[in-house]
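pinging the channel bc i need a second pair of eyes. not urgent but kinda urgent?? the chain im working w is below, pasted from the shared doc
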Amino acid sequence: MNQKKLLSEITLLKNNAVGEKVNSRYSEFQEFKNKSEEDWFSELCFCILTANTSSEMGSRVQKAVGFDGFYKLPEKKLVEKLKSSGCRFYNRRADFIVKNRKHFGLKEKLKEFENERIARDYLSENVKGFGFKEASHFLRNTGSTNVAILDKHVVNILAENLIISEKPNTMNKKNYLEIECKLDSFAKKANLNHAKLDLYLWYLETGKVLK
């Protein structure tokens, strides 16, 4: 496949049932802007849970633990709850979540930043367990539209379709921003923002439309 064929594939998806699913999921992200600080903190924890695992696992654990568990349980009890809910790396993730409780109120805090990419810098530098990918995931899920979520599935399809010349051995800030810049250009060609484009690329690689 190449860029032209990939654009054609996405156009086809826009006009069938996948497009409807993408639009529905996108609407959920946009509606998140109106949710409470409790919901935003729970979503931050979800994005910590999904790092290097799966969205399905993260959603399952998020539902089992809930805001009260994420925000109020003593760390030892949180470890037990994460473990019993099927969470991988439960000790490390519990540590991150407890340390991130000081960030309760992020919905209001992020209004201070000029744009989404500056907000991402803040999140990646201050939230335990967040790099650029996790910060972008959180921002997209809470209504942002202009940050790319460069997980392995998206990077694979970008390399396969010659949007990038090769997959990086490691994803640091420098090559993340370089790849995102190339994806900015492709998103314009596809007439999609990053939030929607990510859903289509993910579907093409996995056959699923997930958060």
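so The mean pLDDT is 95. and The chain has two domains: 3-30+148-206, 36-141. — does that match what u expected or am i reading it wrong
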